[in-house]
């Protein structure tokens, strides 16, 4: 048999096998596609549809396509039914992004030294420290937030300690942006430490030694060696912290007392007491759009950087 005939026979034998594996991969992934469709795509589609509906007379919604809910984010109707600009929701959006960004930055400032310290320990101690970092995940978030309410409340641990050393009695650190930020940083810190730790652990220690041999101090080594080489873990941690912080509900509700609203509490209010489902859906879609833009820009930058390398 010639080489051409042998090659044709081999290709003929491979074709049914390739079709079999293609069909197997399709039907094997079908349950996951169905799960994603019912758990992710379908709810988003419903929210998008409700966002362009009309609010019912007694709550709920009526299927009537309009963009009034999106317009309400920026404008409000006066008594003559003319639109006038209102900044109240823009202030809530700005506060949300400010607190989420500050939470991400503070978590990053603490996570890098903590992750570096853990990565330089012996294996047994390293495993114990990683376990301690993940330990808060074993406790309900509500209990973790209530613990901070006990610490910062008027009769809490911190005010009593300050009272004992001479500060004015009856101080309370609750129901403000500082208390909300404290709880958000606490709940999000493990989400930043773990990705950064995974990146630093893979870092070649000889590169750090080479930096010191070239008379680079600790700041130069951190800025020129550690941070650039661990950028993927830092970006992953920032996304894991920033995105959930945008939709935070428990922290501003319990620690902030509902006085300084964020987008998560605003959405909850629209679906709850206000019974304005279309407006709540419009805010949720706007928040999701911003998150998607942030994720797409981050992915494009990472892809471009990898292509340049």
From TrEMBL:
InterPro entries xref list: MetI-like (IPR000515), MetI-like_sf (IPR035906)
Transmembrane regions: 24-53, 89-117, 129-151, 178-198, 225-250, 279-300
Main location: membrane
Domain ABC transmembrane type-1: 93-300
Keywords, alphabetical: Cell membrane, Membrane, Plasmid, Transmembrane, Transmembrane helix, Transport
Subcellular localization: Cell membrane
Topology versus the membrane: Multi-pass membrane protein
A GO BP entry: transmembrane transport
Any one GO CC term of the record: plasma membrane
Listed Pfam families: BPD_transp_1
Domain of life: Bacteria
Gene3D superfamilies in the cross-refs: MetI-like
Family: Belongs to the binding-protein-dependent transport system permease family. CysTW subfamily.
PANTHER family per record: INNER MEMBRANE ABC TRANSPORTER PERMEASE PROTEIN YDCU-RELATED (PTHR42929:SF1), INNER MEMBRANE ABC TRANSPORTER PERMEASE PROTEIN YDCU-RELATED-RELATED (PTHR42929)
Record's protein name: Spermidine/putrescine ABC transporter permease protein PotB 1
Organism: Rhizobium gallicum
Gene, per the UniProt record: potB-1
């Amino acid at each position: 048999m010639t080489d051409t005939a042998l090659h044709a026979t081999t290709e003929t034998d491979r074709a049914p096998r390739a079709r079999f594996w293609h069909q197997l991969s399709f039907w094997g992934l079908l349950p996951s596609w169905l799960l994603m469709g019912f758990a992710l795509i379908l709810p988003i589609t419903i929210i998008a549809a409700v966002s362009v509906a009309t609010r019912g007379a007694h709550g709920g919604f009526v299927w009537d396509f309009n963009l009034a809910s999106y317009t309400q984010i920026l404008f409000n109707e006066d008594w003559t039914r003319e639109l006038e600009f209102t900044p109240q929701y823009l202030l809530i959006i700005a506060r949300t992004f400010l607190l989420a960004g500050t939470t991400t930055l503070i978590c990053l400032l603490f996570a890098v030294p903590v992750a570096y310290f853990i990565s330089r320990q012996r294996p047994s101690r390293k495993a114990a420290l990683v376990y301690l970092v993940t330990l808060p995940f074993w406790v309900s978030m509500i209990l973790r937030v209530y613990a901070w309410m006990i610490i910062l409340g008027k009769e809490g641990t911190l005010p009593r300690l300050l009272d004992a050393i001479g500060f004015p009695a009856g101080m309370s650190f609750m129901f403000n942006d500082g208390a909300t930020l404290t709880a958000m940083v606490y709940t999000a810190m493990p989400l930043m430490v773990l990705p950064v730790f995974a990146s630093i652990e893979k870092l070649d220690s000889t590169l750090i030694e080479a930096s010191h041999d070239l008379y680079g101090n600790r700041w130069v080594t951190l800025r020129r060696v550690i941070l650039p080489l661990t950028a993927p873990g830092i970006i992953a941690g920032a996304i894991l912290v920033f995105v959930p912080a945008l939709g935070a509900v428990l922290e501003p509700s319990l620690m902030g007392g509902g006085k300084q609203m964020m987008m998560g509490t605003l959405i909850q209010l629209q679906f709850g007491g206000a019974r304005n489902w279309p407006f709540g859906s419009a805010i949720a879609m706007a928040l999701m759009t911003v998150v998607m833009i942030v994720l797409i820009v981050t992915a494009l930058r990472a892809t471009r950087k990898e292509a340049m390398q």
